[in-house]
Amino acid sequence: MLNTREQPVSKRVQVMGVDRTVYGYESDGFFGDIDSHIANNQGLITEICGLPSGSVFVDVGANIGGTTLLAAAAGARILAIEASPRNADLFELNMRANAVSAQLFRCAAGSAVGEVYFSEVAYGAGNHVEPSGALVVPVRTIDSIVAEAGIDRLDLLKIDVEGYESEVLRGARETLRTFRPTVVMEFNAYAISMHTNESPRLLAEMVLDIAGQFEVDSRGGMKVSDRGSLGTFMYQHMVHGCVNDLIWRPK
C-alpha cells in the first residue's frame, strides 16, 4: 500500500563515475535498488554514452530521475516528462540535490491533449495510466512539448510508461519524422495487457512500421526486420516473460 505520509530519504550512488545523492522512499523497492537500475540498463547507457556535444535527450517516464542523471553526466540538454506527482516531486528534489538542469513537464505523454486517470503504487516504477486510477493527470503530446521547448534537434528519446507506449508514439509523429532520434522504449507485454486495451503485438508492429527494423536489447539480443522475425521476438518475449528494450531510429 502506498504510504502518502512517508518522508524521502537519501542514498549515494555512482552515475557514470560521478557520486550522486538520490532521494526516494524507503518503502519503494525500486528506490532500494536504484543504483542497480541506473547501472544495468546497458542499451540505454550505450546510447547515452554515444550522445554528441550539444545533444538533446527527452526522458518520457522520467520517474525520480535516474536516467536523467545519466544523460546529465553526458552533457545533454534534458526534457523530462513524468505523470506521477509523487515521482515528479522526487525528480525535482534529485535535480536540485545534484545541481542538474532539466526541464520537467508534469504530465502524461499521449496521443492528444487532455486528461487521464492515473494510479500511483508502492513500487514507484510501476505507476501507470488506467481507467480506475485515483488521480487525474494532464496529458500532452510529445509533439506539443517539443514545440514549446523550441529545440532544433533531438538525439535520443527514451520511453518507459508501463504499457502506455503506443499512445506516446501516436503523439510523437511529427517529432519522429522531423528529428529521427534514436528511440529506446521499454516493451513489457504484461504492463501493456494489464493497463491498456491494446495488444502487445500491435505495439511491436507499430514500432516496425515506424522504424523498418529494431534491435532487442539485453535479454533478447536480436534484430527484428520483418513480420517473421517479429513473430520470433514475440514468442521469445512471451515465453520468457521478460521486459525488453526496443532500440531504433525512425526511417
Automatic annotation (TrEMBL):
Biological processes annotated in GO: methylation
Keywords in alphabetical order: Methyltransferase, Transferase
Ranges of residues in domain Methyltransferase FkbM: 59-191
SUPFAM superfamilies: S-adenosyl-L-methionine-dependent methyltransferases
Annotated GO MF terms: methyltransferase activity
Protein name as it appears in the record: FkbM family methyltransferase
Organism: Rubrivivax benzoatilyticus
